[in-house]
Amino acid sequence: MDAQSIVTYKSTFDSIMHEILADDGSTMEVWYARELQSVCGYTRWENFATAINRAKESCKSQNIGVDDHFRDVTKTIPMPKGAQKEIDDVLLTRYACYLIAQNGDPKKEEIAFAQSYFAVQTRRAELIAERLQLQQRLEKREELRASEKRLSQNIYERGIKPEELPAAEDIKKVERRVAKEEKALGESQKLPKKK
Fold first, then answer.
1. By the 8 A CB rule, do 114 and 97 touch?
2. Are 57 and 120 contained in the same domain?
3. CB 3.0-4.6 Å disulfide test: which of 13, 90, 119, 147 passes with 33?
């Protein structure tokens, strides 16, 4: 496969990718099987449906929900003389496309490219997910650090020295004592009653 073919295949695969709104509100990349069929070098739907069914079986054998990655849909296509016809199609996740490519006809150059394309796309998505998890972890760590700093400041302001606390005094006792002291402070700093 030459460099020009790779560029052409990549732009073709990219052009048929669609984005939908996922349940969590984020966008999700999906492909329609009828569009993927021609890009993968299949002229007949029946032959491509065989690859789809093998991919579904592969998904089942791994105990992964088929409905989470393969969604049966219908499309309306224009017919001659202005008529329209409904045809079956399948909405596919990146993982479903990867499985289809793995179960497709390896003699087809398009399938060979699809195998690497979806493997790279999957890895790219994994890296993005790892990066997001790392970012969330860092944000939680920063929140914890700020919370611990506030707690240390409160303890210091109350004149409590953690190293001098008896071993049996746990954090709940300290919290109750701090709350009691705050209440006493609040009552002692009330404005005097009108005379």
1. yes
2. yes
3. 90
CB 59 within 8 A of CB 96: yes
Same domain, 68 and 102: yes
Supply the pLDDT for residue 122.
67
**What is the rounded (10 degree) CA torsion for 186, 187, 189, 191?**
130
Note the pLDDT tens digit of each residue in 119-130. 677 667 676 678
Judge if 93 and 142 occupy the same domain: no
Q: Is residue 117 part of a domain?
A: yes
